[in-house]
Amino acid sequence: MSNNLLFISGGELVLVMLLALLFFGSKAIPDIARTLGKGMREFRKATNEIKRELEENTSDIKKGIDDVTTSIEKETDDIKKGVDNSIKG
Questions:
Q1: Do the beta carbons of residue 33 and residue 39 sit within 8 Å?
Q2: pTM above 0.70, yes or no
Q3: What is the distance between the alpha carbons of residues 32 and 22, in angstroms, rounded to a whole number?
């Protein structure tokens, strides 16, 4: 992990922690950390759910595009063969 966490240096991080300690007191900090952890878990869970839904919905589109691509490749191969045959023959 780098020395900078979200563009915050070590000294700035210590200052923020000291300010949090002064504002909230030592007893409230574990509750705040726990709440932040729960929020981060929920955010990550929601993000993963959105990714999963996008992948499910786009898989049909991707399959359709692959089918069209295969069809176009087949048609171009047929045209190439026809042109080659007419040039040779």
A1: no
A2: no
A3: 14
Q: Smallest Cα–Cα separation from 70: which of 81, 58, 62, 59?
A: 62
* 16 in Cβ contact with 8 (< 8 Å): yes
The tens digit of pLDDT for each residue in 54-86 reads 988 888 888 889 999 999 999 999 999 988 888
Q: How far is CA 73 from CA 3, 48, 77, 79, in A?
A: 51, 36, 6, 10
- Ramachandran angles phi, psi of 7, nearest 5°: 65, 25
Helix (H, G, I), strand (E, B) or coil at 8: strand
Nearest-angstrom CA–CA distance, 29 and 17 = 10
Angle at the Cα of 9 from the Cα atoms of 39 and 45, rounded to 5 degrees = 20
Grouping H, G, I as helix, E, B as strand and the rest as coil, residue 5 is: strand
